[in-house]
Amino acid sequence: MIRPGIPVWPGDTHYSEERTWALDESCPVNVSRFAMSTHTGAHTDAPLHYDAAGVPIADVPLSHYLGPCQVMDVRGCGPAVRPSDFADRLQPGIRRVLFRTYDQAPQDQWDDGFTAVDATSIRLLAEAGVILVGLDTPSLDPQTSKTMDAHHAVRDAGMMILEGVVLDNVAEGVYELIALPLKLANMDAAPVRAILRDLETIND
Ligand SMILES: Nc1ccccc1C(=O)C[C@H](N)C(=O)O
Ligand SMILES: [Zn+2]
Ligand SMILES: [Zn+2]
Hints:
Blueprint: E1 16-21, E2 31-35, E3 43-45, E4 66-73, E5 80-81, E6 96-100, E7 116-117, H1 119-127, E8 132-135, H2 149-156, E9 160-162, E10 173-178, E11 189-191, E12 195-198
Parallel strand pairs: 4-6, 5-7, 6-8, 8-9
Antiparallel strand pairs: 1-2, 3-11, 4-10, 10-12
Helix pairs in contact: 1-2
The structure holds (2S)-2-amino-4-(2-aminophenyl)-4-oxobutanoic acid and zinc ion (ZN) (2 copies).
Residues 39, 43, 45, 163, 189 line the site of one zinc ion.
């Protein structure tokens, strides 16, 4: 949940909120404003985040964020998800993949040692036809990365990214993903409300 105290990248803007108008005898409404980093909680990076010539989030295709999605449990995989951690389980034809790396994704403190995704894994996914890759940590690349290899592999393949998606109670399997970014002009990323629907209950 996005709330004061949600962890953010070291040095980045913490979430804050403020009431602009408050309900009382003379005011019929509550209205608020908030400030936060574009990379707070569950979010998606625009190519502009890591490429000066990349498109902003308002211009990314939405089809990537909607449709069948395989959740893979790779807990215990080490510092980065490698092909050997998941390749034999990848469902043929699947176009969206989310990796679960945490028992419980930290919601109160920043974790310097979060799990990243190796660029070789991104290339394997791209070759398999995957157009969206996501995970429950703050970044595809390690916190100390200066080269952003996984991000650039994503861009080279025309894929999209989800980061900070909480998967604590999600079992492995294929679901329908719905995780659309807000259409924010000029922005390098945007929050998403990420949900996974059980395929059997999709017509409810
Ligand atoms: N918020 C930041 C502030 C400064 C530097 C990086 C970030 C990031 O979030 C980068 C991260 N690698 C990301 O994939 O979104
Ligand atoms: Zn990000
Ligand atoms: Zn990122």
